[in-house]
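quick one before i forget lol
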Amino acid sequence: MQLSILKDSKILTALVITLFYIGGYSTLFTYITPFLQATSPLSITQISGVLFLAGICSFVGSRVGGQLADAKGSKFTICLGLLLQGVTLLLIALAGANLFVLILVFMIFMLATWSISPAQQLLLVTLVPRNPDIALSVNTSFIQFGFALGSGLGGLVISRTSVLNLNWVSLAAVSIALLLAILLFKKMSRGIGTPIVTKD
């Protein structure tokens, strides 16, 4: 039953969006300590403080994303989150030696990334209304695949080029997720396909 939902192109696209936006996040965040060491004068202790703030932003992002999805819908929240995620990855490269801007942009990146998750869950529940638990469990698997994809890509980038290129690979992955989201919501607005309804 879990694998059967992948037959629906809309559900599969939604899950691939999860794969790429989490992959884009993980590509940078898995190696965020060496990245910050290479791009800023922060000490290990200070980086620990930055990561503590990042954790708070992740929590706040999830809360805000849930509230925004309830108020504005999954389409608005997902597209906004992906757009902010992409813009912040671009701004990280442009921040240069400006430490305040770098940290601020990184916090917005964390907020944006984790605001997508509750909206993504709402989208999948909408697409699989009779068996939302199945859709969410498969989505959890794709989140784990995304972490694996991102950490693998990040390791490849570091070994072949430089830690300073991580955000560009992250930006590419997030851009793919945003493009897929736009295509998915256009398809949904045209009413192509029907939600999967499986037997209890």
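fyi The CA atoms of residues 83 and 178 lie 7 Å apart.
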